Input
Amino acid sequence: MLRSKLCQITFLRSLKGRVFLILLIVGLIPCFIMRYAILRNYERRAVTVRTSDISTQVRILANHLITYHYLQDTSSEVINAELEQLSNLYDGRVLIINADLRIVKDTYGISEGKTMISEEVIRCLRGKSANRYDRENGYIEMTIPITETLGAELPVGSGESVDVVRGVMLVSASNDSIIATMDSLNRQAVVVESIVGVLIFVVTLLMSKFLFSPFKKIIQALDQVQEGYTNDPISVTDCLETEHIGDAFNRVLGRMKMLDDSRQEFVSNVSHELRTPITSMKVLADSLITQKDVPLEVYQEFMGDIAAEIEREDKIINDLLSLVKMDRKSADLNISEVDVNALVELIMRRLRPIAMRRDIQLVYESIRPVTAEVDEVKLTLALSNLVENAIKYNKEHGFVKVTLDADHQFFTVQVADSGVGIPEDELEHIYERFYRVDKSRSREIGGTGLGLSITKSVILMHRGSVKVASIEGEGTDFTVKIPLKYILV
Ligand code: ADP
Output
């Protein structure tokens, strides 16, 4: 869905556009990731260093506050100067809160005398310092206890000294300098990213020249073929891909030419075959018309010949119609479960009178009962053609043997005869339309040259195969193999 939508965007439908997009993604995404990682890393480190700096300064100052009793008397100039210096240095605010939560000093001078009740301050009075980085507003907040060590004058190790929290120093320091540095880093990264973007654009343009020019050539070559300037095979050897496209196109072109040739040959064959009986009829009719007082016997004989030619024309047209039906996609098979034994028996029964006329023995051997998913009408036509040929191209007093067998996947119908046989070099042509080994003989016995093409089409439609073996003068053996279950593709 998304892919089809993307493909609708003209830019993305071109190979150039896709390459540009891929290079842009491959080139810029690492830049974005690096920028993000560098900035975050710098920020973390800078905040840690600044927090530790402030903490050291504030702890030293906290000791001074005790020494100068600042919590009781805030008039000490030394301490006030130090506080001023600290707040200037870190561009921040310092609040000094005594144990009663009263603000005794505010470097901004606005909250002195007020009471400060906050969780951090109360926790700090219990001895726990804390610091917090407010990223959104860009400052570091820190609470540090002001502790007095009682009993410090006693000898070291006597274990009598105790730390008592007398107040809290609350410091807010601005992070503007860190943010300014990050802004500057960010700007530089954006410049680098823009340069990468421009480079990618230039590379895509250059690539399109070298990479896509073979494709342009092949399109030009295809256009020339289409417009009919040339019939030569296409050859663009600039790169393997275009060579493959050219080869594939040449193959398609070759096949199209072959199809066109065979179509033309078929049309000329059809015209020729249809014209032959008409020419005969015209000759017969003309001779009847031009002769005066034609004897009745001659008249009857000629009319009989004309009727035979009409019958022949009718057979050719019927065979052609069958073939055309096979060729069309709509020639869907009408598949049903068919008793193949009964089907072959019926064919034999129908053709027996023709065989008897030439004293040809028709033998049917059924090895096992067979039911298969086939198109009954079409398969009857296909097998009838084989048995009919075996009779037609047989010798007087010969035989035709039809054998039906099956395994768990296929059934086979073998049609063997003791006829004239087919020369080896003709075997590969017998399924071609209008192909006849012995034209005059075939026509004499009413062949159209279409029977085996119809048979082969039907068998292929059933996903089966047909094989032929023949010895000239001894006989021919056709074997048809068809799946018992129809295979849907
Ligand atoms: P036709 O209508 O001429 O019989 P087919 O397509 O059925 O056309 O057969 C093509 C040619 O193959 C025939 O003209 C014939 O020469 C040869 N042929 C087919 N079956 C046999 C066979 N059983 N024995 C000898 N020749 C055969």
Observations:
- The mean pLDDT is 88.
- Residues 385, 389-390, 393, 417, 419-422, 430, 435-438, 442, 447-453, 476 surround adenosine-5'-diphosphate (CB under 6 Å).
